[in-house]
């Protein structure tokens, strides 16, 4: 089994669904270009039948992107598939993604059908989409809550009908890692033709487990993972792709997975998407939050100055940041103050470290974080005091 992991980004489809204001076509193309530059394998550009604006943006992205495969979503109905095929037809490489719900609650309460009818709709849609391309992905919506016998039946029939990728979404973020990994293991054990398709996973974050569930699924044999940058998406969002990429890169000791993404593009892409989507990133967000590479405790700061890997499991440079930050607070030691003054261009003879450190502590106790301009002001006032 290949250990190459296919990265499927749905920031422009599942992510965009969650925004309070929609993105313009130009902004969507800008995001697609950033994802292409980052080395994302498949960019889900939108849901063309949903609105003329979405159709147009998928069309423009399909015409612009050359090094990633462009994908469009469709329900399991011919009109949606026609719209997806039409919007994608100028792309160099494209995929049609069609889906239908498979859980009892969705089949009965939302679709008001029985499972046999849903199975027919799914296979009919896959066969129809195959007229336009060999690359058809089928998703079993709410797979996380689908009885395993039904899920096995659906996956087997979807592959027979021509799906080259079968996606197993945890649509409502309900499962736990061992449970979700178990679903994937079960599929590999019970679906006879499973080796004829790539098994994909698409996890939502309602219980904060989307990334953990995705990794458990990869360990169980899934080879495509879907997510969004910064984890934006319906409700609590989707699995954050930047976290998955950095898990794959940082824990090579644990898994032998490869992916095409260039991690150095992560920070810039995350900032671009946050700004265009008007979605601020929480400061303690893994990988891309403002505090992800900043150290506040004096003990940690001292450790990092001696050797970065004492408190950093990956370097800031690896995600495209220039460097880490050491926050100056009342927990910072003299070593850090001396280091910061040197960075600001001062030499040892320019100040008395004992006095400056005392003044710094008094200020830090009053205001919390002390900034470079505060240090310069403290030094200025100390020098003035000496002159009097
Ligand atoms: O969460 C989900 O099930 C989806 C499907 C359309 C893949 O977004
Ligand atoms: Zn989703």
Tally of strands: 10
Rounded mean pLDDT score: 96
**End-to-end Cα distance:** 77 Å
Tally of individual helices: 15
Small molecules held by this entry = 3-methyl-2-oxobutanoic acid, zinc ion
- What is the string of helix and strand elements? EHHEHEHEHHEHEHEHEHHEHEHHH
Percent in strands:
5-15%
Largest sheet: 8 strands, parallel, barrel
Radius of gyration: 25 Å
Binned, the helix content reads 40-55%
Low-pLDDT parts are: none
Strand order of the largest sheet: 1-2-3-4-5-6-7-8
Which class best fits the helix and strand makeup? alpha/beta
Described by the principal axes of the CA atoms, the overall outline is: elongated
Domain Pyruvate carboxyltransferase: 5-267
Catalytic activity: 3-methyl-2-oxobutanoate + acetyl-CoA + H2O = (2S)-2-isopropylmalate + CoA + H(+)
Cofactor: Mn(2+)
Protein name: 2-isopropylmalate synthase
Structure description:
- By secondary structure, the chain is of the alpha/beta class.
- It is built from 15 helices and 10 strands.
- Strand 7, helix 9 and strand 8 form a beta-alpha-beta unit.
- Helix 2 runs parallel beside helix 3.
- The mean pLDDT is 96.
- Zinc ion (ZN) binds next to loops.
- Belongs to the alpha-IPM synthase/homocitrate synthase family. LeuA type 1 subfamily.
- Its cofactor is Mn(2+).
